[in-house]
Amino acid sequence: MIPDHRIAVVIPSYRVRAQILQVIAGIGPEVGWIYVVDDACPEQTGAWVREQCTDPRVEVITHAHNQGVGGATLTGYRHALTSGADAVIKLDGDGQMDPRLIRRIAGPLLAGQADYAKGNRFHRIAFTRGMPGLRLIGNALLSFMSKLSSGYWQITDPTNGFTAIRRELLAELELDRIARRYFFESDLLYHLNQIRAVVVDVPMQACYEGEPSSLRPQRMVGPFLRGHLHNTIRRIGYSYLLRGFSVASVELGLGALLLLAGGAFGVWQWIASSESGVPATAGTVMLAALPIIVGVQMLLSWLNFDVAAEPRQPMHALLGDRQSLHEHEGAAAEKKNAG
Questions:
Q1: Which residues contact 189 (CB under 8 A, 6 or more apart)?
Q2: Tell me, what's the pLDDT at 329?
Q3: CATH architecture assigned to 7-215
Q4: What is the reported pTM?
């Protein structure tokens, strides 16, 4: 293994026996570690890789029970923490992601510009050619929900699984609290925001050529809606009440209260007017409209603040310095005890 390799690759594997060897073969020499995680695959993908693959960089980990794509990726992340990699790539084993893009995905991290990078299949209209219409519509809706729940307003294509993360961030994240199935990528964005990580999109083009997929969009609507709502409430509560109470916190709370109060009063007066047949007075209409107008303005002001508050300063350098300090203190303590 060449000592200057700075990239590790994690490949969660489930029903990808027909594609996995080609994916591994496409990984270039810039990668020093490849972790194939067999997520209790009925095709025994892990055993197939052990038998057929001679690449010395490959390590196969097998789950006794299926944990979902997130669970498999987290297992790979834990193994990558023991490597000497600076960036850890998550690459699906179904052939829909081009391994030649690994350098591009890892580039912003290795250059010190970001903590986490992810593919974006919507950067150019041409990139969406061949993409199923249902995926286009679903991703548009998911993108907005993800922006609100994660706080990364400049990010698109939140479910894109082609990602790169700095190893320092993996050590900082509470991996056991991250969703283990299809909500994994979206939930990871929420957790990254909580440690103020810088996230960037990297343009890429996906390939859809009939590869099998176990994802059923109609079954994912409910879980994704619940997950995003839960994370939105947690993020707003933590960011605007516990960690950073500010004028924006007042605008959010008061704006929501005025909007709800004005709306409720307006509906009540409309019902009363309909039942009595007496039109509402101009004063009554203004009593309902004014709180709604002011409330909307306050919420828009909060939204502007929230967009501007997206993390800009990469955290991995600070976390790396902190880790080095802890290691230095530990070594000093051991030396003192030995003396």
A1: 146, 149, 150, 152, 155, 158, 199
A2: 46
A3: Alpha-Beta Complex (3.90)
A4: 0.85
